[in-house]
């Protein structure tokens, strides 16, 4: 009797593990697929996801996102750009302000830029940006610019926030490590919600 119970317990456990592996595998495929798609459509605003900066100088990752946003802005995809990101430990200025300075140097008018300076993760940046866009534009349609590996998660967060969003990834190459990290974040976020996930990451 004990042996039979143990056998059924192992079968159930094996089935559960199999389901988790399948779920993670499907999520990885979705993250990878999203990283290769550009769903950009005209919007009320372009939102640039934050990344590291050094004393006001954008890191290569942030520069790539800003350059991509500038190209989209120059094509007329949106009339304003929202730059996001607060201070990380040791920063003298925010990522948002660094993005603002960079875009101004490229010739974007100050009136066409909005700055979000409090967000420390993707959920906070998009949540604050959604308020900024609603206050500044006629609609809440947004075009989110980020790195390819990040595309599915920001689209999912935007959906949770009720935003009408499309995503335009940069031309950066995503590593397997980045894709796998995003897979775990998306897999957990879908279960517990991205708002809750943002409080523990």
In short:
The chain is α/β, with parallel strands linked by helices. The chain has helices at 2-35, 60-74, 95-106, 122-136, 151-160, 176-192, 194-198, and strands spanning 45-48, 53-54, 57-58, 80-83, 113-115, 141-146, 164-169.
Strand order of the largest sheet: 5-4-1-6-7
- Described by the principal axes of the CA atoms, the overall outline is elongated
CATH fold-level name: Rossmann fold
Quick one: CATH superfamily? HUPs
User: Could you say which structural class the secondary elements and strand pairing correspond to?
Assistant: alpha/beta
**Name of the CATH architecture:** 3-Layer(aba) Sandwich
Nearest-integer average pLDDT: 92
First-residue to last-residue Cα separation? 45 Å
Give helix % range: 40-55%
Radius of gyration: 19 Å
- Name the helix and strand elements from N-terminus to C-terminus, one letter apiece: HEEEHEHEHEHEHH
The main β sheet shows up as: 5 strands, parallel
Number of helices in the DSSP assignment = 7
Instruction: Report the top-level CATH class.
Output: Alpha Beta
Low-confidence stretches: none
């Amino acid at each position: 009797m004990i042996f039979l119970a143990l056998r059924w317990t192992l079968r159930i456990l094996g089935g559960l593990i199999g389901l988790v592996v399948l779920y993670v595998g499907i999520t990885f495929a979705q993250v990878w697929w999203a990283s290769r798609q550009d769903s950009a459509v005209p919007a009320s605003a372009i939102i640039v996801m934050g990344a590291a900066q050094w004393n006001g100088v954008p890191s290569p990752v942030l520069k790539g996102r800003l350059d991509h946003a500038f190209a989209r802005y120059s094509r007329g995809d949106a009339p304003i750009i929202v730059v996001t990101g607060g201070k990380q430990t040791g920063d003298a200025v925010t990522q948002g302000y660094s993005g603002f300075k960079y875009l101004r140097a490229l010739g974007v008018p100050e009136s066409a830029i909005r700055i979000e300076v409090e967000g420390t993760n993707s959920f906070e940046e998009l949540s604050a940006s959604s308020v900024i866009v609603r206050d500044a534009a006629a609609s809440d349609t947004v075009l989110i610019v980020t790195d390819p590996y990040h595309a599915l998660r920001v689209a999912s967060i935007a959906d949770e926030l009720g935003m009408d969003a499309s995503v335009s990834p940069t031309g950066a190459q995503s590593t397997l490590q980045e894709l796998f990290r995003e897979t775990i974040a998306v897999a957990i976020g879908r279960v517990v919600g991205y708002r809750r996930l943002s409080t523990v990451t």
